[in-house]
Amino acid sequence: MSSTAPARLQNLWDDAKAAGMTEPERLVYRSNILGSDKRVTNYGGGNTSSKIWQKDPLTGAEVEVLWVKGSGGDSASIKLDGFSTLYMDKLRELKNLYRGVEFEDEMVGYLPHATFNLNPRAASIDTPLHAYVNHPYVDHMHPDAIIAIAASKNSKELTQQIFGDTIGWLPWKKPGFELGLWLGKFCEENPNAKGLILESHGLFTWGDTPKECYETTIGIINQAIEWFEKETAGKTIFGGAAVQSLDAAARRAVAAKLMPKIRGLISEDSHKLGYFDDSPAVLEFVNSKNLRPLAALGTSCPDHFLRTKIRPLVIEFDPANPDVDAVIARLAEDVAAYRVDYQAYYDRCKHENSPAVRDPNAVVYLMPGVGMFTFAKDKTTARISGEFYVNAINVMRGASTVSTYVGLPEQEAFDIEYWLLEEAKLARLPKPKSLAGQIALVTGGAGGIGKATAARLLREGACVVLADIDETALAEATAELGKVFGADFVRPVKLNVTQEAVVIAGFAETVVEFGGLDILVSNAGIASSAPIEETSLELWNKNMDILSTGYFLVSREAFRLFRQQKIGGNVVFVASKNGLAASPNASAYCTAKAAEIHLARCLALEGAEAQIRVNVVNPDAVLRGSKIWAGEWLEQRASTYKTDKEGLEDMYRQRSLLKRSVFPEDIAEAIYFFASDMSAKSTGNIINVDAGNAQSFTR
Questions:
Q1: For a designed S-S bond to 202, which of 34, 142, 472, 633 qualifies (C-beta 3.0 to 4.6 A apart)?
Q2: Are strands 313-314 and 273-277 parallel, antiparallel or unpaired?
Q3: Residue 572: what are its φ and ψ, rounded to 5°?
Q4: Each residue of 154-182: b (16+ CB within 10 Å) or e?
Q5: Rounded Cα distance, 30 and 483, in Å
Q6: Whether 453 contacts 519, CB under 8 Å
Q7: Does residue 261 sit in helix, strand or coil?
Q8: Residue 414 parent element (H or E)
Q9: DSSP secondary-structure letter at 516?
Q10: What is the 3-state composition of the chain as percent helix, strand, coil, each rounded to the nearest 5?
Q11: DSSP-derived secondary structure letter, 153
């Protein structure tokens, strides 16, 4: 449906590949190739099933088993363990226990009793929808092109016009047991139909083989795409453009200014992560004359709605007169008004047993001329919420062009958002990690300490921007950490901490990627060794530029962001034992490190009233993985202490009180302590991680 999308879905079915698979494996294969294209179904949306004859582990008899996508999971990546398995005979017997639509939620409690082979995967609410379709293979997808039909005012007539008797139609009904019975009745009464459209919801298709089912799904979606292409050709979209977009650089500059303010206003209870989208599909919508009336209607498909809330917040902005400061000045009022409106929606629609009102802040923020911001508890959810709203935009584009777009009725929307079954699912989610929702920037991020620190913060749920001057090492570190922790959570930025404009731009990039900043780990480093009479002014200034001025520049930008957000912040300096204890032939390095430590003390004083904490970690002799020790510094220090490269680490170990080596992971642990709430009442402090050195005792 997007103006930028390829015209047709490809048929990805490979007979040779499928031939060597078992029936359950073919179900996984079918699901994966369907989920690989977001025009077929959104992340986590839709489900697939196969009715397979298998040997009962108790009786040895052949029984019919429903394999159906379980609760949670995503079609594109689902594996065998993502499917529930249930006895079909027991699922059919459940009909005898059904007491009517007002009691349908209780049927979910019976599903575990139908479990086949002790499968621990919980069955989803859509299980009856697949069970009672009298065909062995069923796909339920949420294609934009189909939902555009389903969300049109005359969706039943459009379905008949486009598909004839091949595809049926059912009116809106919340997913559950009753809708499953409706589907079963439709199939019995329409034996020649290949599927049906659910109003305001999506598409069901079926077949007698996995390939037939898959190809029917792809064929029906392509038929809808072709029809919309023909019907929308030459027509005005969204009422036409009301404004023109800012250029790409200007859009990102606005995002960099605005996202920390939004984030601060909505993160009082828990930190949020941001996502920015200025794709052509988004810009076409936010720039249009019909933006406000369409946005007010909300989304239609339940999956869209659960991710994007009842409606977005539209930020009033004229790109022809781009006064971003005026937007920021009224932003708190706009956010507060949205909360009031959301509370009123809750109060109008709540039932006696409804769960308590949840976070009343908007998820989606639309800005003419700029694009869309989405905020959620983690980066992946923020991104997926944005993708869902793009799906909704595509749906509105099609429906409003050929008909009248109809959003989900408010009460129906509420009954899904505050569904007790949905609340139970939320209650089962794991407890958030200690740094969930937080954003860290680590300078020197591609080195030994920097990479170990990033890994430690990522392990606790933070998003991390790796900042480094070494592009090759930066790319390698980003790829390595992204593979372990997920690409959503790691971003690189090339950063020379001595260049003011580059630092400012790097922090702006961080904001656009994640929405703000919570943790700065200032770790960029250099080391030099020379007697004072052999220390050139150039060498002296290089130490000062990187280790003093560089720490000042990144701290200043972090403080600016922290003060915009007004939700506190953490700065951790990676200094050195040499900042407290003098070393021979290292006057430039030691002096610059001492400056770092005193800068941290000054910043701790300045930041305290805003809950900005500033602390220092002092390493010593961290040889493994350090880029500093890969150059001349190693030779210079070995020469100073009259040893060789091999003997230097042992010399440092024996010099320490504890006679132990210090590794990057040890420094990372101390940094995490200062970055986390474990040290919530600590600022202006120093932790020495040097295996014990009496010269650097702080008192």
A1: 142
A2: unpaired
A3: -125, 120
A4: ebbebbeebbeebbbbbebbbbbbbbbbb
A5: 25
A6: no
A7: helix
A8: helix 410-417
A9: S
A10: 50, 15, 35
A11: T
The single-letter code of the amino acid at 370 is: V
Name the residue among 209, 215, 230 with its Cα closest to residue 9: 215
Distances from the Cα of 638 to the Cα of 191, 586, 647, angstroms? 85, 13, 8
**How far, CA to CA in Å, does 63 sit from each of 57, 58, 66, 93, 274?**
10, 11, 10, 15, 49
Q: What distance in Å separates the CA atoms of residue 50 and residue 562, rounded to the nearest whole number? A: 52
CA distances from 605 to 41, 559, 598, 609 (A): 52, 12, 11, 8
Tokens 């731009």 locate to 505
Q: Which tokens hold the place of 430?
A: 């794991």
Residue with tokens 């639309």: 366
State how far the Cα of 491 lies from the Cα of 190, in Å rounded to an integer: 52
Taking each continuous run of H as one helix and of E as one strand, the counts in the chain are 25, 18
Q: How far apart are the first and last CA of the chain?
A: 68
Structure tokens at 461: 């749920």
DSSP symbols for 374-410: EEESSHHHHHHHHHHHHHHHHHHHHHHHHS-B-PPPH
Confidence at 580, pLDDT banded by 50, 70, 90 = very high
CB neighbours of 430 closer than 8 A, spacing ≥ 6?
none
Specify burial of residue 586 (Cβ count, 10 A radius: 0-12, 13-18, 19+): buried
- pLDDT tens, residue by residue, 110-122: 999 999 999 999 9
Residue type, 22: T
Choose among 180, 173, 171: nearest CA to 127.
180
* Sheet arrangement for strand 313-314: 273-277, 371-376, 364-367, 313-314
What are the tokens at 310?
Answer: 């009842």
Single-letter amino acid, residue 139: D
* Residue 531 φ then ψ, to 5°: -60, 155
Q: How far apart are CA 442 and CA 554, in angstroms?
A: 10
Residue type, 659: K
pTM for the predicted model, two decimal places: 0.92
379: left (phi over 0), alpha (psi -120 to 50) or beta: alpha
**Which of 502, 353, 490, 486 is CA-nearest to residue 418?**
353
Residue 569 bridge partners (DSSP): 612
Mind listing the pLDDT tens digit for each residue in 466-498? 999 999 999 999 999 999 999 999 999 999 999
Active site residues: 589
